[in-house]
Fold:
Amino acid sequence: MSALLRAEQLTKAFGSTQAVAGISFDIAPGRCTALLGPNGAGKTTTIRMLAGLLQPTGGKLSYAGVKPGQSPNSLLGYLPQAPSFYGWMTGREYAVYAARLCGLSAAEARSQADALLERVGLSAAANRAISGYSGGMKQRLGLAQALVHRPKLLILDEPVSALDPLGRHEVLMLLRELKQETTVLFSTHVLHDAEQLCDDVLIIRNGEMALQGSIEEIKNNHRMSVITLHIEGDDHSKQWCVSYQGGAYVKELRRIEKGIELVVTDMELARRELLGQLAEDGIRVAKLEFGHSTLEDLFMKVVSG
Amino acid sequence: MSQWMIIWRKELLELARSYKLLWLPLVFLLLGVSQPIVTYFLPDILANAGNFPQGTVIEMPKPQSGEVLAQTLQQYGMIGSLIVALGFMGAVSSERNSGAASMILVKPISRSAYLLAKWTAMLVLVWGSLTIGYLGAWYYTSLLIGEVDAIRAIQALLVFALWLSVIGTLMIAGSVWLRSGAAAAFSALGLAILLSLTASFLPSALAWSPGQLPGLASGFLLGSIPDAAGMIIIAGAVLTAAILYAAVWRMRRMELP
Amino acid sequence: MNESTMELSKLLPIIAPLFVIQLILVIVALVALAKASQTRGPKWLWVLVIVFVNIIGPVLFFVVGRRND
Structure:
């Protein structure tokens, strides 16, 4: 098996509601994967199953090098959405405790904990009680404790969604470094974060896999040529927009507040014809853009469609 | 060092930081020391408090030293078990509800090690508190009331420690099975009361019930040891093991937030 | 000498340890209260409860008043 983790028809039902309805995917070693979807899509449930906190009601999870029935925990580093520590411990005590639980010797645990606290920028606060930590500090401590045993797969649930812009930036920068060293899977509902960091995406909706693949591949396969036209607010131009019917090259026509948006099949043809038409009819163009659909457009379409 | 040991040390550290390691023994000691002192001064207290005419001599049978220790154990049976329940009602459920347990149990450790560490930490604190308090009571009893048969006193302590272990184990199991700490304390104490009530109402039918344990402990001190003493002790140990097994069984299957 | 007369000299060595233990319990509770970042209910109220309610006061604080982080 080349995949580090393979999920086959993974299912979780709570009573009669299916939170995750048979999703299958592979996590390849060394890749950074985003589990993307709107709130309530089943991201957290999926992640909790991967981390072994929930028992799947159906399907199979297999980890490379782990026999069925054996715990994969030594491969995994896990950070939940809102990490909860022992508030009475200091950051260092917690990191050392986590390392000891992962089987490190006392000396190893101390040096590993200190190195990681340094790395996540908590050295100065290491000897303070965790109960006094801010949300961003807890998230960073959470990363440190997830990394103490150099896990093969780091699983993070919405690692940045609860943070303010600064904390978000810090954690994203850390993740950017970490994905060089280990395989990362994180869930998010923010496409931008996935696009910035990840190689692969798994988009889920209502507990089902809506789209999966590498970001490049998805961009290429689903890329559409889009023309955006904004006009000045004069009556003649407005009238033109309302009556515009498009041509043979137009696949989709949307009227937007400032003008129109076209999804076209042949960009070259569209460019020539539309420019000619605009000049001929004397339309007061404010902005004309010949571009491509973004991942955002695709995401919105997949998620709402 | 084994995982169990690492978690156990964390549990003890938590007991220390939450002051339980201090206040539980202190309360047991206070209860234990008060009993012989109050018994000793009871005639004086009554004489001073009541409006008796001058020179009234209050005749009270002087209690035997064994009786005083038995009364101390009775105190521990009521107030002591309430304190044990309050001290451990959230042992697992609070960590589970807060999410702290999820972060620990995704580490490569076994869930039974996690639970057994909590259980042994509880036992250490309960046995330690009981012993300290009981030794205080013993010391004052021999000082003020009279000598106590050491063998009998130790046998009574061990039997009573087993009874508190039953209650403590019920408490830990309650905090595994139930999400609410109050519900766990309520159920554990309810079951303990049920055990001892049924045992005292049906002494012959339930001669081997672990609910006879407190009575057996007093029996050692009062010199009336029931025939079934050995069986009661075995039943108590078996019940503790069974409750613990049920807790581990549930723990292994528990879904975590 | 009447046996049932409370004599200070006889009483003190017996009762003193009892008070010392109580005092330690109260002090431990007050230290815990001072260190606690938040409590259930106002702190001044807990000071009164710990100091004036015999034995039960400190226990009540540890069980109810102290928030366990």
